[in-house]
Each structure stands twice: as C-alpha cells, then as structure tokens.
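Hi C.,

You asked whether I'd gotten around to modeling the 493-residue construct. I have! Everything is below, sequence then structure, no commentary in between.
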Amino acid sequence: MSDEKPQVRGVEQTEDRFLSSDIFEQGSRVFPPRNGQGVHMEEAREIPVYHSCDVLVVGGGPAGTAAALAAARTGADVVMLERYNHLGGLSTGGVVIWIDRMTDWEGNPVIQGFARDVFERLPPEGVAGPRKDLWGVKDDALAKYWRLRTSAFHGIVTWAPTIDPERLKLLSQEMLIEAGVRIVFHSWMALPILDGDACRGVVFESKEGRQALRARVVVDCTGDGDVFARAGGKFDEDIEEGDVHHSMNTGFMLGGVDMETWLAFRGGQEDAFKEFTQLGRETLGFFQTPYVSWRNDTALFLGPRQSGLSALDVDDITEVEIRSHRFMEAHCAFFRKHAPGFENAYMQLSAPQLGVRHTRRLSGVGRIERDQWARGVPFADEIGVSPSVSPKFPVISVPYGALVPERLDGLLAAGRHVSCDANSHGFMREIPQCWLTGQAAGAAAGLSAKAGVEPRALDIKALQGELVRQRVHLRAEGVPGAAPMPAAAQPAQ
C-alpha cells in the first residue's frame, strides 16, 4: 500500500452539512499503465438468438426495475437483462440505501408511482424515516433531529427514508416476476443490434457465451448510456471537476455500532465533533462521517468521493475499488478508536457495486436545464415531477423528450443518463428520479411496441394517461386523473 497521502480537493458543502465528505485525487496508482498495442481481429460468427420480446430493458437498477414493471403493466412482453445477481442497482448492490427526497417543500409526495408501490410493500422493519404527518413540517427541533437522520433539509422535514437493501432486492425481483417480466441475471450487454438508425435488441455475454436478444423497443437503463452510445447516439459528458455529484466511490457499512450514541455526539458536542473530524483528516488524509441506515446497529459510509477518474475506464474503476476497500479498513479502525458508539464496530459489507455518479448524458429531443428551475411550468410532455433543490424553487417538470434520443429509433433512455445539463444532473441522478424516468420510459416502450410506432411518435396524452393509471403524479392539462398544479409550483414572477 502506498504511503502517499491523497490530495484533498475540497469538502462537499451543503446548508445543513450532514453530507460532509472529502473529494480528492491521488497521484500514485496501484498498478502501472497497461502495455497493450495493436488490435486483435475477431472472426465473424453466428450468434444464437436467446429470446425475442416487445420490450427489452438493459440494466436492472432503480430505473430499469421501474421500467420493466411499467412496461409489463401495459401488457407488453418484457425481458430484463442485468449483469449482477440482483435488482436495484445502487439502491441495493451499491448500498445507497438513503433514498433522497420524494416530497416537495410543503410535504406533498411528488415522486409516486413505482415509489408508492415499493414503500407500500416494504415491511415496516425495512424502512426508517419520518411519519407522513411530519412531512413538510418547519420546526427547529424536529428539523435538527431529522437532519442528522438524512431526512430534513433547509429546516424542513421531508420524506427521504433509509431502507434495507436485501428487502428491496427481494421485493424488486418479486414485483417483476408477478408482472410476468423475464429476468436474465449475470448477463452483460456487449453490442446493440441495429437496423439502420433503429435499435432492435442487443448482443449480450454470459456464461453461455455470446447471444442475441431481439426487441421492438429497447430501454437503456445502464446508467452510463452504454446502449445508446454504442449505437451511435449523441451524448454529453461535461462535468464540474471536484463536484461531489461527478465523483466515484464504493460504499460500505460498519456493523456493531450504536448510531444513537454517535448522533448524540455529533449533534450535541459541536466543538468535540470538529476536533474529531480534523483528527480524522490528519490521520487518514481524507475523511467521511457516517449516515444512518435502517438499523441503529449499522452505519453507512458513501465516501470519500474520488474525482479525476472515469467510470468508463477499466483501470480507473479498478483503482477506485482498491482504494475504497482500503478506506473501509482505515475508517473502521479510526472510528473504533475515536468515535462514540463505534467501540465495537466491524467491517460488515463493502458494496459489490461501484458507486458511479456520472459518465454520459443523452442528447435528447428535450432537456432539463438550470434556467428552467425557477419557472415551475409543466412541460406539455411532462412524464413526472421532481422535487427542487431548494425551497426557493418550485417543483421541476420532467419532459418525455429527455428520454428520447435525437436520432436513434427503437430506443429510450432512463436513469442517471437522461438528457439534462450538468447542474440538473445533480438531482436527476438520484434514486427517486431514476424510478420516475424509468417508469415513464417503460410505459412508453410498452405502448410503442403495442401500437407499432417508434417511441418518438407515441401519442403523449396516451402515455400520460397510462402513467396516471400507474399512479404517477402529473400536472398535465387534459389528462384524466392528473393532479392540479399546486400553489407552491406556480410559475415564479
């Protein structure tokens, strides 16, 4: 292990400062640069067709799970292709078990649909968060209590719970099976199948070798835009260097802790806590304080975040994994020695899935942009509503065009790679927003396949009606069952 200390570039800043984490680069690498040269010519070969379907969802993370379920509910024949052994992506395998805000600043749940399905079925012991009657409450004592438990922002209690990842894995799997979705685990998309400018399936690799999956419509939920990028679709990849939203890490959990003791220390002894964090940086060279989980005896760590590395470079992501595993050991030892409530802590789990925040973003026929935040006006093709980043902004309309490629047919994109600018990506990559865009893309794919039209030609009112039927919160005019535009979301003057 290198003795070189990492270069800390900055600490994530938030108003409430419970998301404190160092963001850093480190010059040294575990392995030397690769030495590959030239090319290897692969022989042409026949590839067996594994299956043909109406809708193929590539990637079973939050967006993909929601997409597969929504597509199946339209009556489509759906296949889910997933490279790991579970569904849920970062919300399960990535141990990002803190589910960000699903309510607006008045406490109204605006991300519903698939999110409602999940939380209505998760057992009470698998969820920790404020009661519904507290959502939107502005009370200093309650806000302080829930801020330390990742569910209050800007002095307002919100619905941002933590969940048991194993419960969510099982529930996601069973919901898809009940809906008739064919799940294919341990299978990795290799290449899109193209017919001109239309994507009609993918070639994938598994223990059986290379096979093909044909589909009328493909939904790219890889998170990295692997399907649309390899199909020749346009994308953006601009980021803000040093921004926590564009960094990587592998999350981990420590067991055997007493989080209530820790929170009493953190929230009640400010000077001692500052000394503790300073000692952590001096000792480790980087630092991360824990989040709560769904259990008092389990602490969640989602950093330190590492910048200057690409989740599309196999050497970079290997480096991140190695560093993150070392961070886990170092943090466990430091917290055992110095942190109240961590005297008996042990390394419980390092996430089997890398925590990637950004790689590519689709260039869509529509886009979510920073200058739209203040307006609060629903797009005519609204397919969901996202909470805003601050009480000074109304809720944010998510357009169908953000899921539709500029040029490619037969394909939709959902999840953290939807069409948006770098600023808006900071919240559109979160798990509830991935549920939102995934459900919309899945419903659109199912309707398009049934109607025999390309997704870009789908009647938007038909899609909005289907989403309302699936309990999605919409404000579009002329759609039966759509919610009226609340006062808090009126256009800014």
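If it helps when you're writing up: DSSP finds eleven helices and 23 strands in the chain.

Thanks,
B.
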